[in-house]
Write a structure and sequence with these properties.
Elements lengths: L2 E5 L5 H13 L3 E5 L17 E7 L7 H7 L8 E8 L7 H11 L3 E9 L15 H20 L24 E2 L8 H5 L23 H5 L5 E2 L2 H15 L6 E3 L1
Parallel strand pairs: 1-2, 1-3, 3-4, 4-5
Antiparallel strand pairs: 5-8, 6-7
Helix pairs in contact: 1-4
This protein binds flavin mononucleotide.
Flavin mononucleotide (FMN) binds next to helix 1 and strand 4.
C-alpha cells in the first residue's frame, strides 16, 4: 500500500497538518505538491490499494480554485482517500463539501474527512504556532481511527459539513507588493502558484491573477514583500472579531 500525500499549501500550514496525519497512517509515502503547477498530475499511478491524503487550505470557506483545478485532473482509480481541510480558526464552511464532490467525481473512495487549524496565513498572530501539541495529539488519534476503518474495509456514507450550492467566493483584494528590501532575486515569481509576478520585475503583479495566498511573502528570503498596512489592519480587525475563540480539529468518518 502506497500513501499519496497530495497538498496545496502556499504558506506551509496545510502541509504541516497533512504530515501529521500522513506519517501516522504509514511510511511508504509519495508526496505530490500541487501548490505549483505540476505537469505530471494525470500520470500518478494511484491504484485501488492505495490511500491518498488530499489536503487543501480553506480560502473564504471554499477550496482555492487553483487547487480544485489541479485536483480535478488526478484520477483516484478507486483508491481510498482522506480529505483534509486546513483553516485559520475562522470557519471552513463549504471547503470539505467541495473537496468531497471533486474527489468523488475523480474516482476516489472517500473514507474520512478531517478539519484542522493552522496559523492564519494573512494575519499570522491568529492561530499562531498551530498545529500545536494538542492538534498533533488529536490528528494522530484521528489517523488511528481512519486506519482502523481502512483495514476493516468499511465504506459507509458519512456526514460531511457544507452546503450545496457552495458559498460564493469573494476574492480578497489583498495583493502583496515588494518593499525597498527587495533585491529582485525572482524567487517569489518562481514560487507563485499562479505566475502572477513578473519574472524580471517583481514590482509588477497581475492583480487579476493573484489569489492572495501569501506565498510570495512566505518564501521571500529578505522579508521584502508586504501587504498594504491599510488592508492588513482592516483584515486584522475583522478577523480578530471572529477568530478569537480557539477551534479544534474534527474528524468525519
Ligand atoms: C485568501 C485567503 C483566504 C482565507 N480564508 C479563510 C477562511 O475563510 N477561513 C479561515 O478560517 N481561514 C482562512 N484563511 C486562512 C488559511 O485557511 C490558513 O491560514 C491555512 O492554514 C493556509 O494554508 P497554507 O499555510 O498551507 O497556505 C485564508 C487565507 C487566505 C490567504
Amino acid at each position: 500500500m502506497k500513501i499519496y500525500e497530495i497538498y496545496f499549501s502556499p504558506t506551509g500550514g496545510t502541509k504541516k497538518a497533512a504530515d501529521i496525519l500522513t506519517n501516522e497512517i504509514g511510511s511508504n509515502i509519495i508526496t505530490c505538491d500541487i501548490t505549483k503547477e505540476n505537469k505530471d498530475l494525470n500520470n500518478l499511478m494511484i491504484t485501488k490499494d492505495d490511500i491518498a491524503i488530499i489536503a487543501v487550505p480553506s480560502f473564504g470557506g471554499r477550496v482555492p480554485s487553483t487547487a480544485i483545478k489541479r485536483i480535478s485532473v488526478i484520477n483516484g482509480n478507486g483508491a481510498f482517500a482522506v480529505l483534509l481541510c486546513v483553516y485559520g480558526n475562522r470557519a471552513y464552511e463549504d471547503t470539505l463539501a467541495e473537496l468531497y464532490d471533486t474527489a468523488k467525481t475523480n474516482n476516489f473512495n472517500i473514507i474520512a474527512a478531517v478539519s484542522a487549524i493552522a496559523e492564519h496565513s494573512v494575519i499570522r498572530q491568529i492561530a499562531a504556532n498551530r498545529p500545536d501539541e494538542i492538534d498533533k495529539k488529536q490528528l494522530s488519534e484521528f489517523a488511528k481511527k481512519i486506519l482502523y476503518k481502512f483495514y476493516e474495509g468499511k465504506t459507509n456514507e458519512f456526514f460531511i459539513p457544507g452546503k450545496r450550492p457552495y458559498k460564493k467566493y469573494s476574492n480578497m483584494p489583498i495583493v502583496p507588493k515588494p518593499t525597498k528590501a527587495c533585491i529582485k532575486c525572482g524567487l517569489c515569481s518562481k514560487e507563485c502558484p499562479v505566475q502572477a509576478i513578473d519574472k524580471n520585475n517583481p514590482q509588477k503583479v497581475n492583480s487579476k491573477i493573484c489569489i492572495s495566498c501569501m506565498r510570495c511573502i512566505y518564501v521571500c528570503p529578505n522579508n521584502a514583500r508586504k501587504i498594504s498596512s491599510i488592508m492588513y489592519f482592516a483584515a486584522k480587525t475583522a478577523l480578530n472579531k471572529v477568530c478569537s475563540k480557539r477551534k479544534e480539529c474534527e474528524l468525519f468518518i
